[in-house]
Amino acid sequence: MVKPVLLLDSAPQEALNLIKEFGLQTCHTAPHTGEYLVADASGISLCKTGEKGRVQVDFSGGAAQYRRLKGGGELIAKAVNHTTFPSVWDATGGLGRDAFVLASLGLAVRISEQNPAVACLLADGIRRAQTDETVKEITARLTLTPGDSIDLLQAVGESERPDIVYLDPMYPERRKAAAVKKEMAYFHGLVGSAQNEAPLLKAAKMAAKKRVVVKRPRLGEFLNQEQPAYQYSGKSVRFDVYMPDNPEYTSE
């Protein structure tokens, strides 16, 4: 179900254009239940009826700023081998945080996102970041492609195949921070929890030139119960690495 957008008079024209582009319906009073988007002077945000606080794609400050400054020391940099492979396809876009970190490492990152409300949040976050001189160059390396990632990966042409396909499927993690819990609760409510793990992993392995990297909780199960070739583990998360499943693949 596509969530409505509460449209406030202060919403900039750029936000209105995105709402129209992604086919979202507008309203002028907040829904009685559930999640909904709000468009105002700050951009487009995700809210929930009866709850305080908002979720917004923010590449300029907060967690994004911390991870940007931390840079290549992150485990994700090792998992994608960022010094060797320049292109990544993030096929589970979400709020775009990992995609932004990958772009901050100098990689060209294509993001695909099926849910139109999430894609709209992402597009608005990229739009606002492009006006911030501190992250403008990084967000220029992000390309958003709305649509079903499985279909897009299966249809990719030879010249568009990425070195890496990156996956971070929805997973019911337990988090300590209340703010993170609320944010993930909003997000789960918006997109649901259904996963097409088998076809997603298969499509990723066929499209990637060099490897598929899957983000999981440190003690979580393998995606689609498939054993990876190797892993990079941290305190709370790990990255499972799968080799491509295509005839052009040659060992690294």
Automatic annotation (TrEMBL):
GO terms for cellular component: cytoplasm. It is found in: Cytoplasm. S-adenosyl-L-methionine binds at R97, D98, D168. Its main location: cytoplasm. This is Ribosomal RNA small subunit methyltransferase J. It catalyses: guanosine(1516) in 16S rRNA + S-adenosyl-L-methionine = N(2)-methylguanosine(1516) in 16S rRNA + S-adenosyl-L-homocysteine + H(+). Pfam families: SAM_MT (PF04445). It comes from Neisseria arctica. InterPro entries: 16SrRNA_methylTrfase_J, SAM-dependent_MTases_sf. Specifically methylates the guanosine in position 1516 of 16S rRNA. The keyword Membrane does not apply. Belongs to the methyltransferase superfamily. RsmJ family. The keyword Flavoprotein does not apply. GO terms for molecular function: rRNA (guanine-N2-)-methyltransferase activity. Its EC number is 2.1.1.242. PANTHER family: RIBOSOMAL RNA SMALL SUBUNIT METHYLTRANSFERASE J. Keywords: Cytoplasm, Methyltransferase, rRNA processing, S-adenosyl-L-methionine, Transferase.
